[in-house]
From TrEMBL:
Keywords: Exonuclease, Hydrolase, Ligase, Nuclease. Residues 334-349 have a biased composition (Low complexity). SUPFAM superfamilies: Metallo-hydrolase/oxidoreductase. It comes from Ramlibacter pinisoli. Its EC number is 3.1.-.-. This is Ligase-associated DNA damage response exonuclease. It comes from the Bacteria. Signal peptide: none annotated. InterPro entries: MBL (IPR050698), RibonucZ/Hydroxyglut_hydro (IPR036866), Xnuc_lig_assoc (IPR026360). It is an enzyme of class 3 (hydrolase). Residues 334-362 are annotated as: Disordered.
Length: 362
């Protein structure tokens, strides 16, 4: 029986449907799992994505021919039944379910199984073949509960505010920044965002996600407020002249990579908060198991380790070579208000030079 998804130079191709999933080269028809730059790129003729992702996709890609489906809604193209199901990664993220010729395949894109106030929760989808990421596919990666993490983050901010230091938290502008905003205590002080973060916040609010009030630094006239502020910005802004406006600061980076000893030190941050928009090791295994799939295809991250582990569990497992996360720069759209200053769109590079976790949205 022929495979429903195969590798091509343009990306992951569905032969009977003649469309691609998250292609990295321009194609006529693309199904997009989410709006991070290593999965959603300009130049495709037609885009299909989950309805909640529309605002972010249009903000990032501009004028595109975009068709959307509600989660669980199906469309049939060349005999392939396509439906999109929540991936729990970021706003609008989706798993792509394909049904054709008696087979069901699911391409997960990026996903996480932990709760997140800013997006629909991950939905296990039964299938014969499951295409999974493995960005954090090593047993060392195990995330703390959000209530513990945000208590730690709010405590750091509160101590800095009492000492008259701005708390500068580097994070990816799409997904991570909004998740942080949803969990902080805004009574501690003002919340300031980099110009690259604002349009993404607007898209989240337009989609009905509740976020606290935020301002740009240019909208704050009282310097005393800056010294109590939590500042969310892309990692590149921490090394730019933009940061000088805040005076004395304490800096931190929010990323799953902060689980690695030495990652914070190499980045030059005062603190590291282990916060990821990807599944940890237990999350990956639970998601894979919940599908009931007998065949697993691993796309990016710790591919050999995950493949070997799954094979040892008696599953048919293999890897696909993709360009997801392979030194892709997650470039934020400039806000157009001068906030980004001479730095322009902020390139979001994680430890080791990779942009984000698995390329984006760490």
């Amino acid at each position: 029986m022929a495979d429903l998804v195969v590798q091509r130079p343009e990306g992951l191709w569905c032969p009977p449907g003649d469309f691609y999933i998250d292609p990295w080269r321009p194609v006529a028809r693309a199904v997009i799992t989410h709006a991070h730059a290593d999965h959603a790129r300009v130049g495709n003729g037609h885009y299909l994505a989950a309805a909640p992702s529309e605002g972010v996709l249009r903000s990032r890609l501009g004028a595109i021919d975009l068709q959307t489906l509600a989660y669980g809604e199906a469309a049939v193209h060349h005999g392939v039944r396509i439906s999109l199901h929540p991936a729990g990664h970021v706003l609008g993220s989706a798993q792509v379910r394909l049904e054709h010729g008696g087979q069901v395949w699911v391409a997960s894109g990026d996903y996480k199984v932990a709760p997140d106030r800013t997006c629909d929760p991950f939905e296990p989808v039964a299938c014969d073949v499951f295409i999974t990421e493995s960005t954090f596919g090593l047993p060392i990666y195990r995330w703390r509960p959000d209530d513990e993490l945000f208590a730690d983050l709010n405590g750091w901010w509160g101590r800095n505010a009492a000492a008259g230091q701005a708390s500068v938290l580097a994070c990816y502008s799409f997904g991570k920044a909004q998740r942080i905003l949803s969990g902080i205590d805004p009574t501690i002080g003002p919340v300031i965002v980099h110009g690259a973060v604002r349009p993404l916040n607007d898209a989240y609010r337009a989609a009905g996600v509740a976020l606290p009030d935020t301002r740009l630094v240019t909208e704050v006239g009282d310097r005393a407020e800056l010294r109590r502020a939590l500042v969310l910005c892309p990692p590149s802004a921490v090394a730019s002249t933009w940061l000088r406006r805040f005076g004395e600061t304490s800096t931190a980076f929010a990323s799953g990579w902060m689980q690695l000893r030495g990652a914070r030190r190499r980045g030059g941050y005062d603190r590291g908060f282990v916060l990821s928009d990807h599944a940890d090791w237990p999350g990956l295994l639970s998601a894979i198991g919940a599908t009931g799939a007998h065949r697993i295809i691993v796309t990016h991250g710790s591919v050999p380790v995950m493949v070997r582990y799954l094979q040892d569990q008696g599953l048919q497992a293999e890897g696909f070579d993709t360009e997801y996360g392979d030194d892709v720069v997650e470039a934020d759209a400039a806000a157009g208000n001068g906030e980004a200053g001479p730095d322009g769109p902020a390139a979001e590079a994680g430890p080791g030079g990779a942009a984000g976790e698995g390329g984006a949205g760490a």
